[in-house]
Amino acid sequence: MRDPTTPLGYAKKPVITKLLLQAVYKGVDRSEAIVNGQLVRVGDTVEGAEIIAIGEKSIVYRRGAEKKTITLRPSIVKTWN
C-alpha cells in the first residue's frame, strides 16, 4: 500500500554503499583485498561493484557503466622487507 502523504510520481533513490579499501595482499600467485570487511579477488562482487583489478595499494572496480579506483589511506600503507 502506498503512503498517502507521498507526492505522486515520487520514487526513492537507490542507496549506493561506499566502498572502503582496508587492505591489499599481493602475492606471487594471487592478489586479494579487504573491501568493506570482505575478502575479494579480481572478478568478485561486493556491494554491487565488480572488482576488475588489484594493485599494490589500490583496487579498480566497476559499478554499472562507472569505473573507479580507490586507494589505501597513506597512514595504513606498510611495506614488509
Task: Describe the protein in words.
With 81 residues, the protein is mainly beta. It has a domain at 21-73: Roll (SH3 type barrels). It has no helices and seven strands. The chain has strands spanning 21-26, 31-35, 38-40, 45-46, 49-54, 58-63, 66-71. The strands form two sheets. Strands 4-5-6-7 form a four-stranded antiparallel beta sheet, with no helix packed on it. A hairpin with a 2-residue loop joins β2 and β3 (38-40). The mean pLDDT is 87.
In DSSP terms (H or I, runs of 4 or more residues), the helix count works out at 0
Instruction: Note the overall shape.
Output: elongated
Rg measurement, Å: 17 Å
CATH structural architecture of the domain at 21-73: Roll
How many strand units?
Answer: 7
Distance between the termini: 61 Å
What is the CATH C level class of the domain at 21-73, in words? Mainly Beta
Instruction: Please trace the helix and strand order, writing H or E for each element.
Output: EEEEEEE
Strand order of the largest sheet: 4-5-6-7
Main sheet specs: 4 strands, antiparallel
Low-confidence stretches at least 5 residues in length (pLDDT < 50)? none
Brief account:
With 81 residues, this protein is mostly beta strands.
Please specify the SSE layout and strand pairing.
Layout: E1 21-26, E2 31-35, E3 38-40, E4 45-46, E5 49-54, E6 58-63, E7 66-71
Antiparallel strand pairs: 1-2, 2-3, 4-5, 5-6, 6-7
